[in-house]
Amino acid sequence: MTVAADRLAARDEPLEIAGRQFRSRLILGTGKYKDNETMVEAITASGAEIITVAVRRVDLDRTKEKGVLYHLDQEKWSLLPNTAGCYSAEDAIRYAELGRAAGFTDWIKLEVIGDEDTLLPDVEGLLQAARILVAEGFKVLAYTNEDLITALKLEDVGVSAVMPLASPIGSGLGLLNPFNIRLIKSRLGVPVIVDAGVGTASDACMTMEQGVDGILMNTAIAAAEDPVAMALAMKQATEAGRLAYLAGRMPKREQAVPSSPTTGMLD
Amino acid sequence: MSESNEAMITITINGEERGVPVGLTIGGLLAHLDLHERLVVVERNREIIRREDFGEVGVDAGDAFELVHFVGGG
After folding, report:
1. How large is the ipTM?
2. Residue B50: which CATH number?
3. Is A109 a catalytic residue?
């Protein structure tokens, strides 16, 4: 059993982004955990190798938490700073540059948000920021709509990964448009990582079954009643969905087809 | 907080005006604020200051600083 499982796992190629290879296809956010101990346990249980962080002002009066890096071993996890909360290309570039200046990575999860209620991306600002950041040498992983044309333009601009949403950030609504996600995956050469909207394990599984390269999630784990258990469920669902995709699903039929022989029945 | 005979200047840090001793470098400013310079990124008047320059670049009256670090986020 273990041998068969290992053989199947070995059949899959590692996830490769910007020339770096990863075994895990799950990328985790570090926001909204009730405490840092739970966060570290959940990230560990998920098997994620890449974790996202946000750039914010230091609290000079020390009334709040220390920076997240006090709790995260950078030997264990690759950091992916984000530009969350930025509503213009100019702001996103500023945050990206601050993130890079921290000295850990030149990767950036680029978000340019267009609307406060939905947190949907501002495609114009996104493309503008992506173009500039790529030219500045950043490895850009771009959060975007599940829109093929934007995805193609992002690839053309030179991003390292395109990250279409399953549904709005923090909504937990799951994969609303599998057709568009498959379409994007079928047309892009760079990795397609579905980012945002996954709510529970079945969402993660279904997302991976579309053939995408990975999933990025945060709230689904952080806001679960038991984040560590959900992190493990997400790990298993991501692996199951990936394996089901590689296995190739049976065709769908409108009519039943018996599984047992129709011959050899008693008179 | 400071010695009465110590000369002070006013600068803006993260949107708030603060008085700090005159003649600090950025490294000195971070130490004054009790911040670990390894984890803090410094932007002075909208320009990022490289960590290796913290000991060289001075703090002048009226400077606007943003001191940022990584926090949890998705």
Report:
1. 0.90
2. 3.10.20.30
3. yes
